[in-house]
Amino acid sequence: MNGSKIEHTPVLAGTLAEQIKLPSDGVVVDATIGQGSHSLLLGRTLGPEAVIVGLDVDINAVQRAQFNLKELACNIILIHSNFARIKEQLHQQGIKKVDFILADLGVSSQQLANSEFGLSFQTNMPLDMRIDKRLKRTAADIVNKLDEKSLADLIYRFGQDRASRRIARFIVRHRKVEPIQTTGQLAGIVCKAFGEKRGRRSRIHPATRTFQALRIAVNNELENLSKLLASAPDLLNKDGYIAIISFHSLEDKLVKDDFRQNEKTGIYRIITKKPIVPTQEEIRKNRRARSAKLRIAQKQQHHYAIP
Q1: Fold: same for 13-110+221-299 and 114-219
Q2: How far apart are CA 88 and CA 19, in angstroms?
Q3: What are the boundaries of each domain within the chain?
Q4: CB 48 within 8 A of CB 22
Q5: How far apart are CA 267 and CA 245, in angstroms?
Q6: CA distance 196 to 200
Q7: CATH code for residues 13-110+221-299
């Protein structure tokens, strides 16, 4: 396997490393290990007693991370799992408490470019969108089987697209003629729903929000994030940190509300009163970083988990 260098640019990695002070024998959970970019930076500050546990639903990412992190002095445990199961996975490794939980919720450039995932409207590929191939339902299943109202509601709820009813109507009309099986087909239908003039006026591609909505639905992204956030207080040591990098307002709101609720009850202290966003320089180097928001909280007291 070719994995000689990390191609994925980690978002806000330098800023994150400045904000987090880890003990040299710390236990770190990188809940979205990806290619290991964030863990590589954090791992350089850790000694041989420390542990990094990396989770990812993308089996290819787990394999690349294994290659990229092999030089680190600390112990590396990599698991092909969704971070919604963080507590169960850590307990299976005999780990009860950790010093840092990190989740970078972005889709990587490699995943967007890989036709196996079917995520991109820039290239024609099978309409799949499952990052974890163990999931059963694909994006093609949703657009071809969901009734028009449910489809419109899904695009509105997860994509925040005000044209959701019109888009759903065009999708249903098209699938009566032929099934929608590729990203190119779907992107073309959404563009038609917007019409030429409206599409040109938009700062983002007309299909962006529909594709986001389908990806969130296929991968249960918001539900899984809620489970991660709910598990974190019981897993963190006192003074341990949780850091989440989100890429759209639905994720960011979940994180913001969770941190605030836990601060109110004295469980967390919020480190980032406002989310940290990338510098212009970082955005110039990595355009996909432009929508990233980093929020960090620190554990203050013992948390009694509800069984």
Answers
A1: no
A2: 28
A3: 13-110+221-299, 114-219
A4: no
A5: 20
A6: 6
A7: 3.40.50.150
Cα angle for residues 280, 286, 288 (degrees, 5° grid):
100
Complete edge-to-edge strand list for the sheet that includes strand 98-104: 75-80, 51-56, 27-30, 98-104, 236-246, 293-299, 268-270
CA dist list (Å): 206 to 10, 195, 285: 27, 10, 25
Cβ-proximal residues to 226 (8 Å cutoff; 6+ apart), any chain: 254
Structure tokens at 196: 């030429």
* Location of structure tokens 């469980």: 267
C-alpha separations of 184 from 3, 44, 85, 123, 291 in Å: 30, 42, 34, 7, 24
Give the fold, CATH level 3, of 114-219: DNA polymerase; domain 1 (1.10.150)
Q: Which residue has the tokens 């979940």?
A: 254
Q: Is 136 helix (H, G, I), strand (E, B) or coil?
A: coil
Cβ 52 vs Cβ 76: under 8 Å: yes
Q: Is the pTM of this model over 0.85?
A: yes
Per-residue pLDDT of the chain (307 residues; tens, 9 = 90+): 344 344 455 778 777 878 888 999 999 999 999 989 899 989 999 999 999 999 999 999 999 999 999 999 999 999 999 999 999 999 999 999 999 999 999 888 788 888 889 999 989 999 999 999 999 999 999 999 999 999 999 999 999 999 999 999 999 999 999 999 999 999 999 999 988 555 445 678 899 999 999 999 999 999 999 999 999 999 999 999 999 999 999 999 999 999 999 999 999 999 999 999 988 888 887 777 788 999 999 999 765 554 4
